[in-house]
TrEMBL record:
The chain crosses the membrane at residues 21-44, 56-76, 83-101, 107-133, 154-171, 177-199, 220-242, 254-275, 282-301, 313-339, 351-370, 376-394. Keywords: Cell membrane, Membrane, Transmembrane, Transmembrane helix, Transport. It comes from Streptomyces palmae. This is MFS transporter. InterPro entries: MFS (IPR011701), MFS_trans_sf (IPR036259), MFS_Transporters (IPR050171). GO terms for cellular component: plasma membrane.
């Protein structure tokens, strides 16, 4: 059983890459929050593209962005750290520049912009995790990863609120938001690059320098594809259920989304630290059980119909948020604990591939199941998540050379 980590703010910032790197993360998240939630709106209102064409271009950008992950993994395994983070931000600067240069009605340039934005968005999580894994160790690393997620969600939330307040300005406001996003990415890239963090594999412990392929982690990666559906539940599944099935006011969807963001920002670090008394694998499995329980709770809540249904869904969403927090606080930490130092980048790249794939297909799966009723939607999600939790709990070492303490 692992020793519980204590929360020390200064140590947490240091373990997360230092003050400048923390500022870079905050600026990057703020810029992302300004535009990403409204990218579809930008394509439809500013560029006069059809909603289906805009959605397809955005989806293709996300999926094609995953193609870069093997190269990102190899780059990280050669020792690059803050440079990869800066590059992921600069790539998004290119995407924003293309977006601003796209003529009205030109879907292909919009697709190219979405592609560069997708590459940056997919590369960033693995690069950031590699930075934290290089600076921090053991359970301090878990807390630092949780702190980074909390900071990022706070920045995204503030950016989205600022953008919402500016939307009354119409298309001009959206263009200004895009410019602000590009500038934020540029500033964040400069700050991240200035950290100049580079891993030296030769300085790692002897057992970490063993040659060999990156760990496959088949069960963990397959389970992650299902687990990650929880990230789209507040944004896609719950609005669909509340508005289409329960005929509730859209205010409920907005309130649940805001509450989810607040819970992640305030509880991600404390919950991750408190759960550090248990092994990461046990915690990840527990997160899956909690998510499955919340899905069954949504099934029960929707059966209450109009009136009590919406408040019940809102109450269950708190359980879902706790499951998300437990999942997010243990999944990446487990990967960094399992992967030997020489293959850390490739392991994180494979994990991000599974995350990106799950995020890409989950809207299609959720919207495909919803018309068949609540039982089809929530029952399927609960069953798949329980199976995934069982796979995580029972997975053996597989191709790993060793299982680190506390994993």
């Amino acid at each position: 059983m692992a020793t519980t980590t204590k929360i020390r703010p200064r140590a947490l910032v240091r373990a997360s890459g230092g003050p400048r790197y923390a500022v870079a993360l905050a600026v990057d998240a703020l810029g992302t929050g300004l535009l990403r939630p409204f990218l579809l709106l930008y394509g439809v209102t500013v560029l006069r593209l059809s909603a289906p064409d805009t959605g397809i271009a955005m989806t293709v950008g996300v999926v094609m962005g995953l193609v870069c992950m093997p190269a990102v993994g190899r780059w990280l395994d050669r020792g690059a750290r803050s440079t990869v983070v800066a590059a992921s931000m600069l790539v998004r600067v290119v995407g924003v520049a293309l977006l601003l240069a796209t003529p009205t009605g030109q879907v292909w340039m919009f697709a190219a912009a979405a592609l560069f934005l997708g590459i940056g968005n997919q590369a960033w999580p693995a690069a950031h995790a590699a930075v934290v894994a290089t600076v921090a160790h053991g359970r301090e690393r878990d807390a630092a990863l949780a702190g980074g997620r909390s900071l990022r969600n706070a920045g995204l939330g503030v950016g989205a609120l600022l953008a919402t307040a500016c939307l009354a300005g119409g298309t001009t406001a959206l263009r200004v938001l895009a410019v602000a996003t590009g500038l934020a990415y540029l500033v964040a890239a400069a700050l991240a690059w200035s950290v100049r963090l580079h891993a030296r594999p030769a300085a790692a412990p002897a057992e970490d320098r063993e040659e060999g392929p990156a760990p496959r982690m088949r069960a963990l990666l397959a389970a992650n594809v299902v687990y990650v559906f929880c990230l789209n539940v507040p944004e896609i599944a719950l609005p669909l259920v509340l508005v289409e099935q329960l005929h509730a006011s859209p205010v409920w969807s907005a309130a649940i989304f805001v509450a989810n963001t607040v819970l992640v920002v305030t509880l991600q670090v404390p919950v991750t630290v408190w759960m550090s008394r248990f092994s990461r694998r046990t915690v990840l499995a527990l997160g899956g059980v909690l998510l499955a329980a919340s899905y069954l709770g949504f099934l029960a809540a929707t059966s209450l119909g109009h009136g009590w249904g919406a408040p019940a869904v809102a109450a269950v969403s708190v359980v879902c948020a706790l499951g998300e927090i437990i999942y997010a606080g243990s999944a990446t930490a487990l990967v960094t604990a399992l992967a030997p130092a020489h293959a850390l980048g490739r392991a994180l790249a494979r994990f991000q591939l599974s995350t990106g794939f799950g995020l890409a297909v989950s809207p299609m799966v959720i919207t495909g199941l919803a018309p068949h009723g609540s039982a089809a939607l929530w029952g399927s999600l609960a069953a798949a998540t329980l199976v995934s939790a069982g796979a995580v709990a029972t997975e053996g070492n597989g191709g790993l050379r060793r299982l680190r303490a506390g994993a």
